[in-house]
Amino acid sequence: MDYYKPEQLEQWDKQYVWHPFTQMRQWQKEKPLIIAKGEGSYLYDLEGNKYLDGISSLWVTVHGHRKKEINRAIIEQLDQLAHSTLLGQANIPSTLLARKLVEITPEGLNKVFYSESGSTAVEIGLKIAYQYWQQRGEEKYKTKRKFVSLANAYHGDTIGSVSVGGINLFHKIFAGLLFETVNAPSPYCYRCPLHLNRESCTMDCVREMESLLADHHHEIAGVVIEPLVQGAAGMLVAPEGYLAGVRELCTRFDVLLIADEVAVGFGRTGKMFACAHENVKPDIMCLAKGITGGYLPLAATMVTDEIYQAFLGEIDECRTFYHGHTYTGNPVACAAALANLELFARDQLIAGLQEKIAFFSADLKRFMELQHVGDVRQKGLMAGIEIVGNKAAKEPFAIKYNIPHRIVLEARKNGLIIRPLDNVIVLMPILSMSLAELKRLLDITYAAIRKVTEEEA
Ligand code: PLP
C-alpha cells in the first residue's frame, strides 16, 4: 500500500468516513485514532504508539492479532478460492465448519445457516422461528407470530434485530419501522426493575416471564435472549438459574428459545458457549464475533432438526427458507473460523482461561472502593464498571461532563483502548492475554476512572 502522511489520512477520514455509533461532531473535533497494525494483545497507531486492546477490537479477537496460523489459513484458502455462492453450490470450508459447529455447540443444534454479522444471525433466527410455526402443520400454531424481547437487550441493528432490542437510544427513533414485541424485564440486578437486590433476589424476573408466556404463548414464536450477560446494556449479569428457568418455561409453553451467543460465545464466559453454564439447549443459537477469532466477518444461525424439518417438502409446497446473502458461507471466512477453532483445541484455551478469569474477578473487586463506581459486573473475561455521580443514590453524572468518554481518553493516553457503553466502562480483554497484560489493563482502567471522576467530584 502507498505511504500516506498521518495528517493526510486523518483529514480524509474526517472528510469521507461516517463512523458507526459515533457522535460525529465530537469526532470531527478530536484527533482520530487510526490503527495501522496489530500484534498479539496490542494495536499500533500511525505514529507507532502501542495500545493494549482492552475490548478485543469490539469483542472479537480471541488468540491475538496477526496470529500466524489464522493468517496462513486465510492465505492458503485465497490460493484456492476467494468466493463462490452457497446458492445452489457448496464449498469445502463451509462444509467442514458446519460439521465442526454442530460438534461443539449444545446438543440438538444440527443445522447451520451462515451470514456475515451478529445482526444478520439474529435476523435469520427470527425469520426461521416465524416461518417454522407457519409450516408446522397444526392450525393452532399459526397464531405464533410475535417474540418476547427483554428490556435492555441488544441483538444488532437491522430492523428485525432492533425490534427485539430494548435499548431506548437505538430503538426509539425507528419505532415506526419496528414490529411489536412482548416485553419482559431485564435481569439488571443493580437497578432491579422488580425492586429486589442481589441479596433479596427471588428471581421474580423468571416469574414475570412465566406470567407473560402463560398469557401470550399462543401468539409467541420465540423468546430472544442474550444468555447470562446482556452485553451492550453494560454487562448485566443475570442471576444464576435465570437462563435455565427461561428454558424450562419455553419448553412448557411451546415457545422457541433463541439464544443470541454473538457476544458471549467462543469462550468469553469461561465455557465455549454461555448456555453450557446452565446446561441449556436452545432451539436456535446465533453466533458471530469470535467465530473467526476476529479475522473476517462471519456468522451462523444454528437450529434443531425439528425446526429444519418444517422447511422440507415437495417443490410445490413452497416451504423453502427464502433468505441468503451474496457472501453467505464465504470460504475464506470459513477457513479463518476453522483455524480459529483448531487453535482453541490445540492451545487448550478454555482450560487456560480459568486462572485468568479467577485473577480478573478478584482484581476487579478493588474498583468498588472508588467513590464513583456504583457496580462492578463480571462473567468470564467480560466486565462492566458502572460509573455514578452519587453512589448512595445510584445517580449517574450529568451527561454534559462526558465522564465515560473522558475515562476512555485518559486510558488511551496511558496505552489502553477501552470503550464506554452509556455510563458503563466495558472491559473485554483478548482471551489470549497474559496475566501481566490483564493486570496492566485493570491498573490503567482503575487509574483513569479515579483521575477523571475525582477531578469532577
Ligand atoms: N447480538 C449481540 C448479543 C451483540 O452483542 C451484538 C453486537 O455487539 C450483535 C448481536 C450484533 O452483532 P454485529 O455488530 O456483528 O451485527
Question: What do these coordinates show?
Answer:
The record marks 21 as: Participates in the substrate recognition with KAPA and in a stacking interaction with the adenine ring of SAM. The modification N6-(pyridoxal phosphate)lysine is found at residue 289. With 457 residues, this protein is an alpha/beta fold. The chain folds into two domains: 33-62 and 350-455, Alpha-Beta Complex (Aspartate Aminotransferase, domain 1); 71-347, Type I PLP-dependent aspartate aminotransferase-like (Major domain) (Aspartate Aminotransferase, domain 2). Helices cover 37% and strands 16% of the residues. The protein contains 15 helices and 17 strands. The protein has helices at residues 6-16, 24-29, 56-59, 68-80, 92-104, 118-135, 159-163, 168-171, 204-216, 242-252, 305-309, 331-346, 349-364, 403-413, 435-456; strands spanning 35-39, 42-45, 50-53, 109-115, 146-150, 182-184, 220-225, 229-230, 236-237, 256-260, 284-287, 299-304, 373-379, 382-387, 416-417, 419-421, 424-427. The protein has a seven-stranded mixed beta sheet, sandwiched between helices. Helix 4 runs antiparallel to helix 12 and helix 5 (92-104) packs across helix 12. The longest helix is centred in the last third of the chain and has 22 residues, at 435-456. The protein is globular and about 65 Å long. The structure holds pyridoxal-5'-phosphate (PLP). The site of pyridoxal-5'-phosphate (PLP) has 14 residues, from helix 6.
